[in-house]
Design goal:
The complex is a heterodimer.
Chain A: E1 7-20, E2 29-39, H1 44-53, E3 83-86, E4 89-92, E5 104-108, E6 115-117, E7 120-121, H2 124-132, H3 148-154, H4 162-166, H5 179-191, H6 198-209, H7 217-221, H8 228-248
Parallel strand pairs in A: 1-5
Antiparallel strand pairs in A: 1-2, 3-4, 3-5, 6-7
Chain B: E1 3-7, H1 11-22, E2 26-30, E3 47-48, H2 60-70, H3 77-96, E4 103-104, E5 107-108, E6 110-111, E7 121-122, H4 128-145, E8 149-152, E9 155-163, E10 166-174, E11 180-184, E12 187-189, H5 211-218, E13 223-224, E14 229-238, E15 241-244, H6 248-251, E16 255-260, E17 263-265, H7 267-271, H8 281-292, E18 297-304, H9 310-315, H10 318-328, E19 337-346, E20 349-350, E21 363-365, H11 382-400, H12 423-436, H13 443-460, H14 464-478, E22 503-507, E23 510-514
Parallel strand pairs in B: 1-2, 1-12, 2-8, 12-21
Antiparallel strand pairs in B: 3-7, 4-5, 6-7, 9-10, 10-11, 13-20, 13-22, 14-15, 14-19, 16-17, 16-18, 18-19, 22-23
Classes of the chains: A alpha+beta, B alpha+beta.
């Protein structure tokens, strides 16, 4: 098997300062680890994997440490599992190349979900929101070429939760569901036939439109690079402006 | 009321759950992480069905013939006939769920894929798996709301509950609380391929440890064709895994070459003038392996996509281009990309009948963990089809059998853990298996791998995964011929007397193999 990763010329040493917590109930503390690599594609995920693979993991001060708990799956930016806060911003660990992060990197769990342990958070609230908003089709669709572009964009949401982490208006348990809710809904708004849209539009107005302060912080950090503004404009047009227009008529 | 336990919430697990729910039945959908994290979201190129929309006179019969031939006649003929016949309905169902398949002039368009003579692969740019998953997740949500689908989204399969030879349920651990529970009911395993037996060497997800399959093997479930590993011709190395360059890159016009005496040699086009770069994956990977070893050739095979039009990049392969730039700092529209074969798929797995029943009553399997559809080599575009169709078929069989018994409540109060060795041992096992199960194999190589495995087990103990690994090596040893992905340099020809699945199972702690 050929080597994985690309070898750069220079070895790189990174200190990872990780915010740790053994369980939801226990105290949080910071612990630093040193990771060295020659792979210029090495990401935070690479470092976490390598640290956990060590037989006797020790922190920067040589103190024995327990394996770092975190979630990952695809390691190529397509599943959203490894979302965490890196140097203060929510990102995917697999999409955070060490060479771009400086020699000391802070790593923390996402801030708007309950912590399970270390870097694992329970993102249940995102899935609950979608269920509460009835984000599903009631009947079969007839495929329509004109709706495919928006549907493709909206179906790309990873449900990673990064957008909720930076959103100034979202908090878990609130009425506003953030873009992790707004994006999947926008697929239905686009694809449903006109006479079947009213309920989902109502949900959209109530749980997305009315809560969104249009800071669009989410757009800049979306790891999937979704064009959130385009989806919002499209859904707003259908749910707010058109319905106002129809009501007047 | 009877509940069905589904292990795995990717394409096959979700489809099984939705099918059961549509039939009014309850299920417990168990997965290590949310469906958005399933390996299915990585599937890129597309899903096959003879929709006959491209004006080429395609039919399920042609799809059947290509699939059987691609798998070198090792697949279950009756199962493949049903699969290919049912394929158009599967794709139409998915389109009706809102999967944004590429369309033109009011109908779905289909692209060329390896080993197929017709344009038969429906696709959504180069993220078909993600698009299908998003639609299925939405559909499943409808039944989660009505209570028919109950999700257990951070839960690990520990073992099947088998009493008097009948599967009565599964033991499952909550990874967040570390408490385990016995779930009672019929079980459908949708746990993915055996990628976890090869840590860091495959294009798959790190979630897949291979443990679920290995445990079932140890518990007496019969497996088939475990020697059949698919090496995808075009992968690139990224940290901790291989990254796939979709076959669609060649379907849309990408060409493989190697430097020979300082000139580009398009070896696939020269050797296979009909299907060229789109020969089945086993053939392409083997050719790449051999040209790299020629004295007059360089040691790198390149995928040349510089001839693809701007429109193709934008409308059909946008994600692929971004991915290659991200990892290799090469723009594939400008420069050829160095590629290498990498382990991508497991044709072998749990042996089932055409209704997806295993040898243990009450236990079903669907998706990549099974073996009936792809024989000795899987065609691109058939895996997503097999996963969706398999999940649907297993669930339909359960619906047809009617309810029996009450599953009761699931209470998480136990303490059970997977029977797994350390990460170092898992890695060592992966290296041993890889040494015996490469693209080119020989009895001597396999024997040496088996000897290393003996030593590993002696030193570290016997585990479910060492047993399943042994089945792979013993199956490769038993198949003294070359067929599909299994190429033996000491038996380079096909032997028609071996045109039958390699069955393997664990009996009294011993691994046994029979063709």
């Amino acid at each position: 098997m050929p080597e994985t990763g690309r070898k750069g010329v220079n070895a790189m040493t990174t200190e990872l300062k990780i915010l740790r917590r053994e369980s939801a109930q226990s105290e949080a503390y910071r612990q630093s680890f040193i990771f060295e690599t020659e792979d210029e594609n090495a990401a935070v995920s690479t470092a976490l994997t390598a640290l956990n693979a060590r037989d006797d993991l020790k922190d920067k001060d040589g103190k024995p440490a327990k394996p770092i708990r975190w979630e990952c799956s695809c390691l190529q930016k397509k599943c959203g599992a490894c979302a965490m806060v890196i140097n203060g911003s929510p990102r995917l660990a697999c999409d955070s190349k060490l060479k771009e992060l400086g020699s000391v990197v802070t790593v923390e769990p996402l801030r708007k979900f309950p912590v399970v342990a270390d870097l694992i958070v329970d993102r249940k609230v995102m899935f609950d929101s979608l269920r509460e908003m009835s984000v599903w089709l009631k009947s079969e669709l007839t495929p329509d070429e004109n709706t495919q572009d928006i549907a493709y964009e909206a179906s790309g949401c990873l449900q990673c939760g990064c957008c909720l982490d930076v959103c100034p208006n979202f908090y878990a348990g609130g009425k506003f569901v953030g873009m992790a809710g707004g994006v999947p809904v926008s697929r239905l708004i686009e694809q449903l036939p006109k006479d079947e849209k009213s309920e989902i539009l109502k949900e959209y107005r109530k749980r997305v439109y009315e809560g969104c302060g249009k800071s669009l912080a989410c757009r800049k950090i979306c790891p999937a690079g979704l064009d959130i503004e385009k989806l919002l404009v499209n859904s707003n047009a259908a749910s707010v402006w058109k319905s106002l227009f129809w009501r007047k008529k | 009321m009877e509940k069905t336990i589904i292990i795995g919430a990717g394409l096959s697990g979700l489809t099984a759950a939705i099918t059961l729910a549509r039939g009014g039945r309850h299920c417990l959908l168990v997965s290590l992480q949310a469906s958005e994290r399933a390996q299915s979201v990585l599937a890129e190129g597309g899903i096959n069905a003879a929709l006959d929309v491209m004006g080429e006179g395609d039919s399920p019969q042609y799809h059947f013939e290509d699939t059987m031939k691609g798998g070198v006649y090792l697949a279950d003929e009756n199962a493949v006939r049903r699969l290919t016949k049912g394929a158009p309905e599967v794709v139409r169902w998915l389109a009706g769920l809102g999967v944004p398949f590429n369309m033109a002039e009011g109908h779905l368009v289909q692209r060329n894929f390896g080993g197929q003579k017709k344009k038969r692969t429906a696709y959504a740019k180069s993220s078909t798996g993600k698009m299908i998953m998003s639609a299925l997740i939405d559909e499943a949500r409808k039944y989660e709301a009505s209570g028919l689908i109950e999700r257990f989204p951070h839960h690990e399969f520990i073992e099947a509950v088998i009493e008097d030879g009948v599967c009565k349920g599964a033991v499952v651990r909550d990874c967040y609380t570390d408490k385990s529970a016995v779930m009672r009911g019929k079980v459908i395993m949708c746990c993915g391929g055996m990628a976890g037996l090869f840590p860091n060497m495959t294009t798959g997800t790190t979630q897949n440890s291979g443990y679920a399959a290995a445990k079932l093997f140890e518990q007496g479930v019969i497996f088939g064709n475990t020697e059949m590993l698919q090496y995808h011709p075009t992968t690139i190395g990224i940290p901790d895994k291989r990254c796939l360059v979709t076959e669609a890159a060649r379907g849309e016009g990408g060409r493989l070459y190697i430097e020979r005496n300082g000139e580009k040699w398009y070896f696939m086009e020269e050797k296979y003038p009909e299907l060229k770069n789109l020969m089945p994956r086993d053939v392409v990977s083997r050719e790449m392996y051999f040209v790299r070893r020629r004295e007059d050739c360089g040691d790198t095979v390149y995928l040349d996509m510089t001839g693809l039009s701007a429109e193709i990049w934008q409308k059909r392969l946008p994600d692929l281009r971004a991915e290659i730039i991200h990892y290799l700092a090469i723009d594939p529209a400008e420069k050829p990309v160095p590629v290498h074969e990498g382990i991508h798929y497991f044709m072998g797995g749990i042996y089932t009948d055409i209704n997806h029943r295993t040898n243990i009553s009450g236990l079903y399997a669907a998706g990549e963990c099974t073996c009936q559809y792809h024989g000795a080599n899987r065609l691109g575009g058939n895996s997503m089809l097999g996963a969706v169709f398999g999940g649907k078929t297993a669930a339909e069989d359960i619906l047809a059998r009617g309810e029996n018994g009450n599953s009761g409540e699931t209470e998480f109060s136990g303490e059970c853990h997977a029977d797994e060795p350390s990460e170092a041992v898992r890695k060592e096992l992966g290296e041993i298996l890889y040494s015996g199960l490469g693209i080119v194999r020989s009895e001597a190589g396999i024997d040496s791998a088996i000897a290393r495995l003996d030593a590993l087990e002696k030193r570290e103990g016997i585990y479910p995964r060492t047993r399943l690994g042994r089945s792979m090596l013993m199956s490769a040893k038993a198949r003294k011929e070359s067929r599909g992905a299994h190429y033996r340099e000491d038996h380079p020809d096909k032997d028609e007397s071996l045109r039958a699945p390699t069955l393997s199972w664990c009996e009294d702690g011993e691994v046994r193999v029979r063709i």
